[in-house]
């Protein structure tokens, strides 16, 4: 059983470009190019959304498509950063548990990462999305009885609410703290989650900010509540003006990583769930 000991640092404020990348003046592939950022460059993230990041590079501020930026992961135990993807290769340094690394590439069982401006390889099993060891919960009832799962695992939340999402069943649950600090189920909603090529993150996270809407020149989503980085609970898809629903699909795996909900359900989370609320996604 795992108890939440502290809130993770949720700000993915430094990332690296995976290829030469256009810095644009708006969130569109048709927008003007401010400059081309060379592959391997460090950028500072100002804001993050599902498709686009707002960044600063060499004093220039603009937007980049997030597919070409490094992905954030955490070590859940002290582990060695190695010079090659081989346990016999020389260690570069020791990466402490709960450290944030930027993943550049995955090579079989190894991830090529940057930690503290040093590049090397970490065995994949020692990395997770939340800095916690995978499988620390007892998942016996995760698919069949979510109320029993959250209470048997004594999951903690700094607020009166707790949210869980089951990626296999594509269901999101909202709980409220009841008598004797037991979690009581308020809502159970169908949701759409990340497709295999852009999966929804798994682990334990903490609500960290919200936006009334975001989108591009082709779509808009409403009532976006941030799970971590560019991952949100938000509504189904509207047109770019936000006046008409263009995709109301729920119960599928086809998003860019965010969890889509019916409009009224996304709004409920947006209006009622406070920052720092615990979120568990598996």
TrEMBL record:
InterPro entries: Cell_Wall_Dynamics_Protein, LD_TPept_cat_dom, SH3-like_bac-type, Transpep_catalytic_dom. The keyword Chaperone does not apply. CDD domains: YkuD_like. The keyword Nucleotide-binding does not apply. SUPFAM superfamilies: L,D-transpeptidase catalytic domain-like. The active site is at 234 (proton donor/acceptor), 258 (nucleophile). Pathway: Cell wall biogenesis; peptidoglycan biosynthesis. Gene3D superfamilies: L,D-transpeptidase catalytic domain-like (2.40.440.10), SH3 Domains (2.30.30.40). Keywords: Cell shape, Cell wall biogenesis/degradation, Peptidoglycan synthesis, Transferase. This is SH3b domain-containing protein. It comes from Terrisporobacter mayombei.
